[in-house]
Amino acid sequence: MSSFFPVTIKDGVTSFVTEADRRDNWSGEDLVSRAALEAIQQCSFAAVLYGVSSPFMTAEASSRVLTHIGHAMLASVACKVGQICAILGSQSSDQNEENLSQSASQALQGVCKLGSYVSVYSIAHLTINQLVSEMGRVATAMAVYTGGSPQVVLNGFESASSTWLVKGFTQFGESLGKPLASALVSTAAVGAGLAFACTQLTLSHLTKESYPELSNQLQVMGVCSVAISTFAALSALFADKLSGDFVKLAAVGATPAVVVAVTVGAPVVLKLALSKFDSWQNSLSWNQQA
Predict the structure, then answer these.
(1) Burial class (CB in 10 A: 0-12, 13-18, 19+), 277
(2) pLDDT digit string (tens) for 58-90?
(3) Which of 55, 112, 184, 210 could serve as 82's disulfide partner, Cβ 3.0–4.6 Å?
């Protein structure tokens, strides 16, 4: 998993196949046991994500999210069955077909494994992403307004909202002025989601050698965070009329097009910087050995 945007689709999906997946002597029982363990891990992780965000959900939203997580787990199981079939099919190929079979098998395994990750983590992760954004908004609002009593409500996958009492401005808020203070609160919601995504992508990069499975999971969640933020900005970009945060952002020059560029560009620049840092470290290591 050396790149954020792989050179080819085949390389991209194959990057999700770890050394453990490439073992050529898996028995059917071993594969089922491993798939079951991975499913339990995914279910546990989804439960943790749901547990963190559920106190902020309405009862109806909580029920809908649980239902969607259940559907995602079923999709994940189907992907794992496909991965098992790909491995067993590769093992049963004869010598003449070995090279082609190995290549096709790894590509199919990568697709199935990626599908397994996306199906679970994209669903379970969505409410966490909403929660992080709203917490960023609330924290900034408390810095610029006086009044307090913040409240965050997650309405499932459709929307999220946060409220607080406004009795006036703090000293910091007064120094900004009303338009800029309001825009800063809206920017904090977008910025918190983007910072969350970049943190996950950074951790994915740092753990890719030591913990490849964790790295894959973090990468999928980071990309999902970027996609969520980008989709919101694109929706505003093509909307007939701006609403919500984008009205306040546009008032200070941050149009939806600017938000899309920053939301997509920041993670790309981050991954390029991390890759350059790796190259620099490798060149230092070679020079020291020489």
Answers:
(1) exposed
(2) 888 888 888 888 888 888 888 777 777 776 666
(3) 112
Q: Give residue 262's pLDDT.
A: 92
Tell me, letter by letter, the H, E, C secondary structure of the chain: CCCCCCCCHHHHHHCCCCCCCCCCCCCHHHHHHHHHHHHHHHHHHHHHHHHHHHHHECHHHHHHHHHHHHHHHHHHHHHHHHHHHHHHHHHCCCHHHHHHHHHHHHHHHHHHHHHHHHHHHHHHHHHHHHHHHHHHHHHHHHHHEEEEEEEEEECCCCCEEEEEEEEEECHHHHHHCHHHHHHHHHHHHHHHHHHHHHHHHHHHHHCCCCCHHHHHHHHHHHHHHHHHHHHHHHHHHCCCCCCCHHHHHHHCCCCHHHHHHHHHHHHHHHHHHHHHHHHHHHHHHHHHHC
Question: How confident is the model at residue 18, as a pLDDT?
Answer: 55
pTM of the model: 0.78
Distance CA 272, CA 261 (A): 16
Domain ranges of the chain: 9-289
- Contact predicate 68/127, CB 8 Å: no
